[in-house]
């Protein structure tokens, strides 16, 4: 790794132009270190090209439709769009922000979109809300309000949002793998394995357990690219199992044929593994569809959905940018980064692009730290990572081979990593600990990020007010708390008013 405190001699010619533009020598880096860092970042976050199709590519919207043609899940279609949007945005971050930060569909944010928003409306309307969220963040960046809002919300609530989303996507992973299933009797909400038995069974479950233990071991050993390696290795095991057992999918023609078969996608080798990417998902969004269709969720719910997305996206980025920037030695004495405005501008455009590309909001990835650890200090590393994402588009057909049992371990491990932030919450201060606790537990328990956030904000405001500390609550939080309270009570209010 290059010494970041000693500037290197700049080069001449075209390499010199790149050197000066990206400030490679000035930041104590080299071209080799930047390329190596770009490769490291890509291989540690390339799992999203597989996981995003599992999250939003296999979920149905409120009308019963899948992304794409609507009749069936199409992972390669979602994978191609995911890789394309990630590639363009990461290159933009490198060229405009000039920092080694990579962007892609936010894992956790996509679960919010798939299970909390799209399940109540059409995919086009849901992606329209994602675009609106990005536009709002863009306005906040341009007006300088983003930092002000960031400081208005207590740190523990910000942390609790990330922890809760981590538990939520881990729960999704267990359910998608068939490790946890709904019970037929209803005596308990969920239980292990096949519904009604309370025990594990079936080859796919064994594949999932092998994948989870293997991935967890590699993460514990700090193996670079552990999550991606885990997905690929478990998929190979799944392909071998299917070749011998010939299980097929659990559901055929809408009917459950074998609860011990593959839950979503059987691991069958596709006819082609390389091909021209299908980018037909791009542009499939309706900006104000959720507001104009009263048969769906209504204006209030649509507003709160946008707000939920905004909060979930908002704080994760700020923490990632500062954390990775500090690791790269880019944080200045006043705690800011060079070109902070440009960095946040690209990140806000990432949310817009994610919705416009029908792949959910894109955000800056903490996995960028892997590239920094390999010596990356400039935006050239991001350009390398972005080009690799664009190359990955041509291998999108390969995602059709990955069953959820092979991808779910990654969701659980990422959930664990997000859960580790919980240590930053002061649980000795009940005024903030109780709202944080409600935020964390209600996201997975209610299967809704919106409910978890709402419970946290409302309880925080109420507890502060009842303790005579209303003045400690930022005016923004009073507004947010009131909106969420209205969201929770809208049906009783309608019944009371007879509307």
Describe the structure.
The chain has helices at 13-22, 31-45, 48-55, 75-97, 109-117, 123-143, 145-152, 155-176, 203-220, 226-245, 289-292, 299-327, 340-356, 368-373, 379-392, 404-419, 430-445, 449-466, 475-497, and strands at 103-105, 180-182, 190-192, 251-252, 255-256, 362-364. With 499 residues, it is mostly helical. The chain folds into two domains: 13-425, no CATH class; 426-493, no CATH class. It has a two-stranded antiparallel ribbon. Strand 4 and strand 5 form a beta hairpin.
What's the layout of helices and strands?
Layout: H1 13-22, H2 31-45, H3 48-55, H4 75-97, E1 103-105, H5 109-117, H6 123-143, H7 145-152, H8 155-176, E2 180-182, E3 190-192, H9 203-220, H10 226-245, E4 251-252, E5 255-256, H11 289-292, H12 299-327, H13 340-356, E6 362-364, H14 368-373, H15 379-392, H16 404-419, H17 430-445, H18 449-466, H19 475-497
Antiparallel strand pairs: 1-6, 2-3, 4-5
Helix pairs in contact: 2-15, 3-4, 4-13, 4-15, 5-12, 6-12, 6-13, 8-12, 8-16, 8-17, 8-18, 9-10, 9-16, 10-16, 17-18, 18-19
